[in-house]
């Protein structure tokens, strides 16, 4: 079945998400000072966004001192970058884990999209800050932006380079298509979060667009 041939049957459930990547994302009890500060940054962003969060807010929520904060991070921005990096790494690893490489093209794409949405739904405030506030930080954020994009490009290439994809005539995704796809995911996600629309609403259009990019064209 191709992208335009009708609704897709839901694939087998890929299984639950793995345990969260660090104690601070589930329970701060026993976590290191750094992890507690990252957890506090996550909570503050959920409440007020990155721009309106202060170091004072972070240390208050983390129940630690400014001195402890500056022993771990140079400034609020460095803490934000660290939070984005560890969360992004977790999301990508989980998406790769949850896609059944032996399933049909349609099922693999839907599993990947659904896993992305599920991960993004956990922290909508952080997701929106990542998409909207990170670029506003200018050149200081460029390394984080570049590393993030490269990680997603690598994921897209990897998911389209399996034996199942090759047998179906799928060519591994090139860099240009991967960048195009990633930009579309980001904008769909930001639009849903900003409007208060459930992120699940992007699953169908994102799946259809992804299939259009990977499904071989009929001659």
Primary descriptors:
219 residues, mainly alpha, Arc Repressor Mutant, subunit A, Tetracycline Repressor, domain 2, 2 domains, 10 helices, transcription
Present the secondary structure layout.
Elements: H1 33-48, H2 55-62, H3 66-72, H4 76-98, H5 105-122, H6 124-133, H7 142-159, H8 163-167, H9 175-195, H10 203-214
Helix pairs in contact: 1-2, 1-4, 1-6, 4-5, 4-7, 5-10, 6-9, 7-9, 9-10
Can you walk through the features of this model?
- By secondary structure, the chain is mostly helical.
- The protein has 2 domains: 28-73, Orthogonal Bundle (Arc Repressor Mutant, subunit A), CATH 1.10.10; 80-214, Tetracycline Repressor, domain 2, CATH 1.10.357.
- It has helices at residues 33-48, 55-62, 66-72, 76-98, 105-122, 124-133, 142-159, 163-167, 175-195, 203-214.
- α4 (76-98) runs antiparallel to α5.
- The longest helix is centred in the middle third of the chain and has 23 residues, at 76-98.
- The protein starts with 32 loop residues before the first helix and ends in a 5-residue tail after the last helix.
- The CATH C-level class name of the largest domain: Mainly Alpha
Report the average pLDDT across residues: 85
CATH architecture of the largest domain: Orthogonal Bundle
Number of helices: 10
What radius of gyration results from the CA coordinates?
19 Å
Number of domains: 2
Structural class: mainly alpha
Gross morphology is: elongated
CATH topology name of the largest domain, in short, is Tetracycline Repressor, domain 2
Query: SSE order in H/E notation?
Result: HHHHHHHHHH
Stretches where pLDDT falls below 50 for ≥5 residues?
A: 1-14, 16-20
């Amino acid at each position: 079945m191709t992208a335009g041939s009708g609704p897709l049957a839901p694939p087998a459930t890929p299984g639950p998400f793995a345990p969260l990547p660090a104690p601070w994302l589930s329970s701060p009890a026993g976590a290191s000072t750094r992890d507690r500060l990252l957890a506090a940054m996550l909570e503050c962003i959920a409440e007020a966004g990155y721009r309106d969060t202060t170091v004072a807010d972070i240390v208050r929520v983390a129940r630690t001192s400014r001195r402890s904060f500056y022993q771990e991070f140079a400034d609020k921005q460095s803490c934000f970058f660290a939070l984005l990096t560890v969360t992004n790494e977790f999301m990508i690893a989980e998406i790769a884990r949850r896609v059944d490489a032996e399933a049909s093209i349609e099922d693999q794409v839907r599993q990947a999209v659904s896993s992305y949405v599920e991960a993004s739904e956990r922290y909508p405030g952080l997701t929106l800050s990542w998409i909207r506030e990170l670029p506003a930080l200018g050149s200081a954020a460029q390394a984080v932006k570049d590393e993030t994009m490269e990680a997603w490009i690598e994921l897209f290439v990897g998911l389209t380079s399996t034996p199942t994809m090759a047998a179906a005539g799928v060519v591994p995704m090139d860099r240009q298509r991967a960048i195009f796809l990633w930009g579309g995911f980001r904008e769909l996600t930001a639009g849903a979060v900003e409007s208060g629309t459930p992120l699940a609403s992007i699953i169908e259009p994102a799946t259809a667009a992804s299939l259009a990019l990977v499904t071989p064209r009929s001659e």
